[in-house]
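Two proteins were folded this term; both appear here.
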Amino acid sequence: MVKIRGYKVSNLNDIVFSFKQEMSYFTDVPLPISILIILAASLCCINSHDGNFVFDDSEAIVNNKDVQSAPLLSIFENDFWGTKLSHKKSHKSYRPLTTLTFRFQYWLRGYLNAQDFHIVNITLHIIVSVLMLFVLNIILGRNNRKVSFYAAALFAAHPVHAEAVSGIVGRADLLCALFFWLSILFYNQCIFNTGMVWKSCSLCCCISCIAVAMFCKETGITAIGLCGIYELVIINKVYPIDIIGVLSLKYSYKETMHFLTLNRGSIFRYFVLLLALVILLSIRFSIMGFLAPTFEIVDNPSSFIDSLFFRVLNYYYIYCLNLWLMVCPIWLCFDWSMGCVPLITGFNDVRLLAVVILWIILGTFLMYTFSSSRSNDSRYVIMGFTFLIVPFLPASNIFFRVGFVIAERTLYIPSAGYCLLFAIGLEKLSNRWSSPKIFVSMYAMLILLFFTRSWVRSNEWKTETVLFNSAIRVCPLNAKVHYNVAKSAADLGNSTHAELEYKTALRLNPNYTQAMNNLGNLLKDRQQYIEAEKLFRRAVKLQYVTRYR
């Protein structure tokens, strides 16, 4: 009998097991080095630090009186864009704490300095990326810290985050993610702390962080679901097959009551989470006046399809595109509305293949989670899909209609689930491969590739001219893209290019009144009064029909 690192081995199987233990210790990355690498990877958008206010930044910050001159209390009375919540055109996006950070920066500087805002966003992304490592460490445990590191590093450098980091309005997602992670960390402390005082304080901090996250962006409310599933699956080791067993009365009343007695702490925490959910949702809906926001068909065309079947089918295709942006973030665009994603209206559309593949993936996942497998890997996969799906629910059109087709910044938190699933899969493959170093090298190349793509994409967010022109390559059928390119060209004095792009926008969307008005003004300045008058009359007629229909 011999000893290897303290393990007593007496046969060949024990020696093989001990060797695997040695390899696992060897491949673990020390925590300080992990943090340094993640910090370096999260600097992928640092070149946007000297960028301008672009796109939505103008409406949410530059032209928003709540950020500069309005009374402080107006921040809590208006939506994120400075419109009264009671106004019928309000998007009902209530994010007062995010707006408050804009107001605070304006107060510190005395004027709007875009560089200050960008530096804060980059700093927040660094903090969120590092915090994600600690969140995954408590979910996966001590023996899977390298998986946590792989996932957090991938998250830090992922190009789909460029919009949230380089676009200043993306701070809502960054702040939401920050308090999202903190709520999970505090919930974990509540579970493992000793003493009622510390447990109560940790639980109160958790609920407070969830509330703050929600008032930074609506997605924050979904942290309640993450905390609940974390305790159910990771702490209590309850699998979906067990829930089916309880519902089908497979377990006796005595066994069920014995389980509940042993987990009284969990039941109490679930009660608190449920109570917090009801209270926070009640507050949120009361602020909205219990009215859903109204959007136009150009904002989210698929949600206006009369056929329920094809409406759902288009939703699934949009989910496919969101998933593809996380898997292969090549097509990145600041706006995906107005024809960027043509509707699926028949069964002869080749894009249905993508929907079928998504159904196969979801079906495989359901079969895996509801199987009799009770391994740790299955629990980690469940948590990965939870991170991927639950934070995305507010943007899924399931509960209410949203005002966009695809918004890359909404993938900021859900991408953590994709990164976790990718890291789990990578670890499983490397364990079955004779040379794990090959997978580590491939992973390092992927991080470098993502870092480079994020660097290039964040550079495109520095000026509106570059940003708008980059979108034409991705969404040439998007009338709004051409409109913004025309508007930018007109501001730079290039009226010829502006006229061409305005006409392209009107060709793609003949009812685009803003393009008509701007083109009419451009033609009027050129003294082409007859053509300008036709455009103005047509725009007024369309606006009248829209208002009184």
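Next, the second protein.
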Amino acid sequence: MPLDFRNTNSIWASILVETCHRLGLTTAVICPGSRSTPLTVAFATHPHIETLPILDERSAAFFALGMAKKTAKPVAIVCTSGTAGANFYPAIIEARESRVPLLILTADRPPELRHCHSGQTIDQIKLYGNYPNWHAELATPSLEISMLRYLRQTVIHAWEKTLFPIPGAVHLNLPFRDPLPPLPQPEAQALGSELNESEFFVNCRPLRYHASAFIPEIPLQEWQSCHRGIILGGVAQPPDPKGYCDAIAHLSQTLQFPVLAEGLSPLRNYSDRNPYLISTYDILLRNPLLAHTLAPQIVIQIGDLPTSKQLRAWLDSIQPIYYLIDPTYHNLDPLHGKTIHLRTSIEQLAAKNWQQTHGKTSASKPHNYLKLWCDAESNCRQKLDKLIASNPAIFEPKIPWMLSQLLPKKTPIFIANSMPVRDVEFFWKPGNRAIRPFFNRGANGIDGTLSTALGIAHHNQPSVMLTGDLALLHDTNGFLLRNKFKGHLTLVLINNNGGGIFEMLPISQFEPPFEEFFATPQHINFAELCLTYGVEHQLISSWENLEEALNPLPKTGIRVLELKTHRHRDAQWRKDCFQKLADRL
């Protein structure tokens, strides 16, 4: 039986866990500690919930975040009292900003042991500020039936709040009195014959949430009458990548608007769906004359704004009429332009548009503005590909360009923040391999990079992570997950001994203090680091080596493919490349 009637705490914890299971919870991540003993025992002994013990709370939270990103379903995270829960904070911030469902369960001391210098006790009420979707402190465990019903209903509400109206984290703080282990208690054992479990949990069932049925009025006629419009296919991790790309393609072809496709979206990996795909927009907009000529009257943004600073500055300078398609109630307009927020999904909008146009897309000859975009893309893409292909050296911009063409079809790839996400936007080549990019672009930090990638790869097909050395070093405790991890993850490690992103910023011209305080080289031998954790390591010395290592991917284990690059030289190559190509357009 899932309920544990040995004592008050065990009943309380097992009701919480069984409620979560019936609502749809399949995975819980447990961090070690004493005060959380009732929760740990309840999760660890539940027959239908995968329970994973993870030492480091920050790593545990990001691992859970990765699993929740992959499945779009809540994952539970448990920790003991004190500073343990504080280490969840970065992942909870990311969960809010990137709209990922998490159920955070922090154990706590009872009220009488607070504010009296009792050990391992801090103020955990609203520990995460406004970042959770909802926060509550539960009552101390009780055997009263009315209180057990209260527990059940509060957990149901918490579960709903992780998913609706916008996915995110929910924090439940749970005080427990001694005894924490399931030591026998007669009055608790007697409750076992009184509580009818089937009746008690009759209202606990999985609930399905869809995007809001509210579809705002779409200015389709205004869009169709405009011959200078663009669609921004921004940063997005849709649960159905192909359907997402089809919806954007339908809108693009109906309106004859080009789609400026960010690398951190599925669009470039389904390029056959859309003949008007633009991937080199950052370079195109570096040519002042072309940037002026390509200025749109209408912009339709789908997903978060692309990463490119060049694109953002261009949009800010021209101030077009701006439509933002996203079902959330968040403000997604950092440019503060002439923005109209259409709070619906692109899939819903395309479905409505499909009905209005009877499934027909425009068959007319592309107008001059669209042709100008497509010709510029073809010209720039051809020159960029030739420039990259002709350089045989191991250098950073070529790595994402190669990955876009080498990875097995449908490979999940987690892309670390800082320089890798930018190189993906600059250099990821459009193709039809259905590769699925993941990332933490909610708060854009380097926290938990490895742990998130492992969460995405857990019980998934063989996966890849693209990372720099500093992002990996910031989360090497993620390797402690090796013994519990099920699946395969290959880390493509760009080791330029420092923060490559800072080489692209004006501060790089100021030495000192640039190298020591911004680039922060760590001088780590990654082969020895991998040996410490029992992780396979391979130094890649040629592009042929990389191709052999990536296709096919192994089925199990964790592996690091290290490519040593030259931070200063590669930064200069980017600058020269962008300038050279922009001047030739």
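The CA atoms of residues 9 and 179 lie 8 Å apart. The mean pLDDT is 94. These notes refer to the second protein only.
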